[in-house]
Structures are given as C-alpha cells and as structure tokens.
Amino acid sequence: MRRLCSVIPALAALAFGSTAYAACDTANKFVFNYSSRPTATLSYGQTYSYNAANGGGATRAFTVAIAQNGLSSTQAGGVQMPAIGTLVSGASGANDLIFGGTFSGRTANITSTTRVITLTFTFTQPVRDFAMVTHDVDFSANQFRDWVQVTGSDGTTTYTPVLSTPWGNGNATGQARTASGSSLTVGTATSPMTLSASQVGGSGTSENNSDTGTLNVSFVQPVTSITFKYGNYPLTSGESATGQQAIGIGGISFCPMPSLSVTKSSAPASGTYGAYNIPGNDVIYTLTVANTGGSPIDAGSIVLTDALPANTVFRNSAFDGTTSLPVKVVSAGGTTITGTNITYSQSGNGAFSYTPASGYDAQVDGIRIAPSGELAANSTLSVQFMARVK
Questions:
Q1: Whole-model pTM?
Q2: Exposure of 190 in the CB half-sphere (CA atoms within 13 A)
Q3: In this predicted model, what pLDDT tens digit does every residue of 232-286 receive, in sequence order?
Q4: I want to staple 289 with a disulfide (CB 3.0 to 4.6 A). Which of 114, 211, 381, 390 is the partner?
C-alpha cells in the first residue's frame, strides 16, 4: 500500500499595502438626508438616532449628539434651535438639521469647548468615504462670522477632511481659497481670517436658501466618528457686537468597509497512480480571498504570502493550457495577475527575490502574490499553484 503524504495547508498570510482609497459604487453607498425627516424642534444636550439606507434597501444606524456651550439665546430667525426645518436649506428648499442661536461673545478658540456648538456623528463600526453637505456658512458685519471646524477619528487617529464648495475650491495645494459666488473661505488661510486646514469661515453674505454658503466635507479614511464644531469668529475691525446665526446640515453619505476572509485548500492532482497525495504526484493549492463587504479593496493593496509544506517541491511551469504562468487565476474579482505580480523566496533566505528554475525547483520555499487593481465589493479572488509531493 502506498504511503499517503501529509500536505495539509497552513493558512496563507494576507497583508495590505498603502494606496489610494477605493470608493464604493452607488448601490452600496449609504445615504441619509434630513429632507426625509419631518419638521421638528430638537434639544441641545440630546443624542438622536437615524438610519442611512443603500440602493439595495439595507440600513446602517448612526447617532448625532448635539451640544452647546456659550449660547445666550437658542433662537435664530424666530426658530427654536436645534431643529429640523427649512429656515436654512440650501437651494433645495428641503428640511435641514438647523443649529445656532446667539453666542454670549465671540469664540476665542474653536479647538476648545469655549462658545461652540458641537455635533458628533458616531457609527457602531468604521465607515469610509464619509461625506456631508452643510448650508449657509457666511458673514454679516457686526453680527456674526460663521466659524466651522470638522475632524474625523477612527478612535486612535484624528483626520483632516477635504473641504470644498460647489465651485470646487478646497484646501489642497494650489486650490483657490474662495470663489466668486461663494460666501466662505476653506482651509489654511490668513485673510480675511486665520484658519487651519480643518476649518472654514464666512467671508461674504448668503441667503438662507441658496448654495452661496454651501460647504462639502468628506473623508477618505475609515472613521468611527465625525466632530463638527460651530462658533462665531472673534471680532474684526469695525465690529463690537454679536448676534443671531445659524447653519444647516442637509445630510450625509458613506461607504461600508470591506469584509475580508482568506482560505487555503489543497487537492491532489491526478497522476500516474491516480489522485492521491503520494510521492511523485502533484498537489493543487488554492488560495481564496473573499470580500463580502460593500466597498472594494484598494488597488494594489492585497499581498498573499504562502509557505510551502516541507515535503513538497514547487512546480514552476505553466499551470495548464489556460495560462503560461505557474499561478492560475480561477476568479479575479476585478484584479489582474501577471508574472511581475508573483515573487518567490529561497530556502534559508526570507527575501522574496529568488528567480526559480524552470520546472520543479526544490529551492522555492514560499510564494507571494500581489495582484494589481481593486478587488471589487462582494467578489472573490481565487488562485491556484502546484507542488510535487516528495
């Protein structure tokens, strides 16, 4: 009776590189707009729960905590703040989440809790590609200069957003700080006010129901919370008073995170003595990466590393008639694999820089596969290679 050899696979290692973030498609994006909520009066010091929905009908819960410090009045435009309504709505005329009032004095330092309204959006699990639309950030001499700061966090790191207006100005190098038709200045600036990269200030007038004061906020990094602070910029030349002010948030959108699993399996190839794990026969190893999440995996970030069992010899030849490579792509999931995406390590040398000989090469003790392109949402990457049983 022939000896059956042990070629049970150890689980392949899966690592990720650092590349550009990949956004989800429209069907998987979760969206929430305050236009879907009835008009209501809310309260400072309270937390509100909502559900965002994607194109497939799935929902994702989040909360918004609304707090204030330093308001002498919680009314603006005859409306009790905070509220859901149309006092501020942008050009859509639909309901916004409106907040504001009259501060007892100008905000000395918006990064602290002095005289600011704070909204905190919190998610039970990380989300990516978060976006928010804010309306009516502007300035009225001797009354208010809207001052906003937005930051994101994953619980460990604080992130700076991408800030822009409908006219495209933002806080990236070379971008304009203001635009004709815009009533705000975004990002690092010293005039007409001093701002950091995460801050926005009113620099002109805007009607409550126009897009002149619209601000777009987005984060590419995965976050679990967004902190939105709103205040009244310190008095500037010719000013001596403070008055009513309010802005609104139209809604948010975000992508779910990818959800990954990796498996490895083996099966004997049919040889002279049949499909058995016996000396002289080949074994087919299958590595599978499944992304069951609603977002793609960033392009070029998957790295599969696999160590060969000690009693096998890697086969460096065309897997079969469908490919000239020793690795066969069973399912690509949107990725591509060429010869340059496959590297090998040599026995006694951990570096994946070895060039194997054609055919069976006993010097190969590991294989690394780093596909190009994005692994699509709800898709699978599956590859195979062979080794001979000693």
A1: 0.84
A2: 0
A3: 999 988 889 999 999 999 999 999 998 889 999 999 987 666 676 778 889 999 9
A4: 381
